[in-house]
Design brief:
With 235 residues, the chain is of the alpha+beta class. It has helices at residues 40-49, 71-90, 155-162, 197-209, 216-232; strands spanning 17-18, 25-26, 30-36, 56-60, 63-69, 96-97, 102-105, 110-113, 116-119, 142-146, 166-170, 175-180, 186-189.
């Protein structure tokens, strides 16, 4: 999948260059390209003007990674999102879905877009706001990343700088949960702080049931039935 950058990229003073030919990696889920010597201003212009739908940018102090998701990547993203939506709805949890919003902190020169992000515990703190400003508002509680290629950037380090309490990483088979610790680092957790271990395990199982291109409507209805019978009753 080709990555097309906006006209702004040709107007900036510096010339970002690929670190190496091996910085581009294609697999079943995504394609990644890494650039160096990219200014914060250029990154912000690209965030505002990039023309390829779904193209994702991650920035870390002059390094810019451009990731183009392939179809199965976005399918996993949407399936996971639908499952989270059902659980939060059926359990009557506070939730504000922020999709793949670009989260960035200029002072730390870091930014990225998660595949999915959610306000859960902090949802009441941003209620009624059309736009969230991380300078004054809390970050999302949960970010979800679908990935099966290794990013050249320290993605968890960027999330830590943004202050996101929990990150899920799904490689198409295994879901790992990372919780932000008091020392500013993530540690892998056996259970989400927002959902039970049974719930997250069931989400992975359910994605496997829909991975072969099946109709999603009966699939999501069956999952909703499971939630009502096993989670709502047990609350």
């Amino acid at each position: 999948m080709a990555t097309v950058l906006p006209s702004t990229a040709a107007q900036v003073s510096e010339a970002p260059v690929p670190l190496s030919p091996t910085a581009t990696e294609a697999t079943a889920l995504e394609v990644r390209v890494l650039l160096q010597n990219v200014s914060w201003d250029t990154y912000e212009k690209l965030v505002e003007e990039i023309v390829n739908p779904g193209t994702r940018l991650a920035y870390d102090e002059g390094l810019l990674e451009i990731m183009s998701p392939l179809e199965r990547h976005d399918r996993f993203k949407e399936l996971l999102g639908r499952l989270v939506d059902v659980v939060t709805e059926e359990l009557d949890m506070s939730c504000r879905s922020t999709g793949s919003t670009t989260w960035r902190r200029k002072k730390k020169k870091k930014g990225l877009e998660a595949d999915k992000s959610y306000y859960l515990t902090n949802a009441p703190k941003v209620r009624g706001k059309r736009e969230v400003d991380l300078n004054i508002d809390p970050p999302p509680d949960l970010a979800i990343e679908v990935e099966n290629t290794s990013s050249a950037l320290d993605q968890l380090g960027i999330y830590a700088a943004l202050g996101i309490p929990e990150v899920w990483r799904f490689d198409g088979e295994i879901l790992t949960i990372h919780g932000l610790q008091a020392n500013g680092q993530y540690a892998e957790q056996t259970q989400s702080q927002f959902f039970s271990r049974e719930t997250t395990a069931k989400m992975v199982e359910w994605i496997g049931k829909c991975d072969e291109g099946d109709d999603e409507i009966p699939w999501i209805k069956e999952f909703r039935r499971w939630v009502r019978e096993n989670l709502v009753i047990s609350r």
